[in-house]
Amino acid sequence: MHETGNPDHPGEPLIRTGAEQPWDPEDLAVAQGRYPTPENVARAKAELERDGAAAIERTVP
Fold first, then answer.
1. What is the Cα 6 distance to its own chain's centre?
2. Closest CA to 60 of 9, 25, 19
3. Which of 55, 60, 61 is nearest to 31 (CA)?
4. Which of 3, 8, 39, 57 stands the most exposed, by the fewest C-beta atoms within 10 Å?
5. What is the pLDDT of residues 43-58, one digit of tens each?
6. pTM assigned to the model
7. How far is residue 41's CA from residue 16's CA, in Å, rounded to a whole number?
8. In 1-61, beta strands by DSSP E
């Protein structure tokens, strides 16, 4: 679903992605299909620290 009113480009739809909201490492681990074990949470935390929004976009576009 697209929203109207893109403030940067009037007349174009506003497109939102999964990365536009805050993500915890636990959420990313679960979104990747992994149980939120300490190891998987640590892996997700490292991905978020290293890649930022790209880590989320790979999983939840």
1. 20
2. 19
3. 60
4. 8
5. 999 999 999 989 998 8
6. 0.69
7. 25
8. 3-4, 13-14
